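pls design
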């Protein structure tokens, strides 16, 4: 496993839900110390790392990736001791049934009404979050309250593993891979003065990135981020959005932004000049 993959795997195994990125931030801070000229943590929790370039710039370049991950938060209890919860960040309820959850050192499993107790109409619809619960093994509501107090964050209890031909399965790939890439490239002196921002609370509304952008006022900003893909056998054409092993994705727009045309063309040309495989998103998603 190369160094980038090792770093990504190590970061993915860490827990850092939105608003509680402390452990990830501390780890990254220690890793960047030998290479940075300035390291700051702002009031939001963003880690701002300055690396002096070969050339000075009045306004720096900013490269950004986020440290936070999606998860759950305890919102209540059932009388028989299960935890009722809400999602922190965007999570599809269909994919969490049967998944393990970790509230600190308390483990649980996401459950739903048994299929033989559901109606035909219920089986045709996607389950609502309110119909799910987390079984933590408590005998009653009082014990559950003691084990997992209201407002306790929970993360997906999912080990990082390699599989197939160089593939990685893990929680928090979005966007610990971006953080790993930044940790790799900041070890070499950049061409110009550059701030590397390891952001917080991206999954609940790009909150950290907004603060960092206003504080640093960069001339150019590059975001290293995971993107959606549906490159499955039964999905045709543009619906796949992009594809695994087809290269980095350089988008020109998404649902909320049309990116700077000159920047898009510059990145495209650089990829082609250096024989770096690239693709764009075939569908705005």
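designed seq:
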């Amino acid at each position: 496993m190369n160094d980038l993959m090792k770093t990504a795997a190590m970061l993915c195994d860490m827990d850092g839900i939105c608003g509680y990125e402390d452990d990830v931030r501390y780890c990254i801070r220690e890793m960047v110390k030998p290479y940075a000229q300035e390291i700051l943590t702002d009031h939001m929790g963003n880690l701002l790392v300055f690396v002096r370039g070969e050339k000075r710039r009045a306004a720096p370049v900013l490269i950004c990736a986020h440290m936070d991950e999606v998860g759950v938060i305890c919102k209540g209890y059932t009388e028989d001791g299960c935890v009722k919860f809400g999602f922190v960040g965007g999570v599809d309820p269909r994919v969490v049934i049967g998944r393990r959850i970790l509230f600190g050192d308390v483990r649980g499993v996401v459950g739903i009404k048994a299929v033989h107790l559901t109606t035909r109409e219920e089986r045709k619809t996607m389950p609502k979050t309110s119909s799910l619960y987390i079984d933590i093994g408590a005998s009653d509501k009082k014990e559950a309250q003691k084990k997992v107090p209201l407002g306790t964050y929970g993360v997906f209890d999912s080990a990082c593993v390699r599989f197939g031909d160089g593939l990685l399965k893990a929680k928090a790939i979005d966007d610990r891979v971006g953080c790993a890439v930044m940790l790799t490239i900041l070890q070499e002196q950049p061409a110009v003065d550059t701030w590397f921002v390891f952001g917080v609370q991206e999954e609940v509304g790009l909150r950290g990135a907004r603060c960092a952008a206003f504080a640093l006022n960069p001339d150019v900003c590059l975001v290293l981020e995971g993107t959606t893909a549906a490159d499955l056998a039964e999905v045709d054409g543009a619906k796949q959005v992009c594809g695994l092993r087809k290269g980095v994705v350089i988008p020109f727009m998404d649902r909320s932004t049309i990116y700077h045309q000159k920047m898009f063309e510059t990145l495209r040309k650089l990829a082609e000049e250096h024989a770096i495989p690239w693709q764009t998103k075939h569908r705005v998603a």
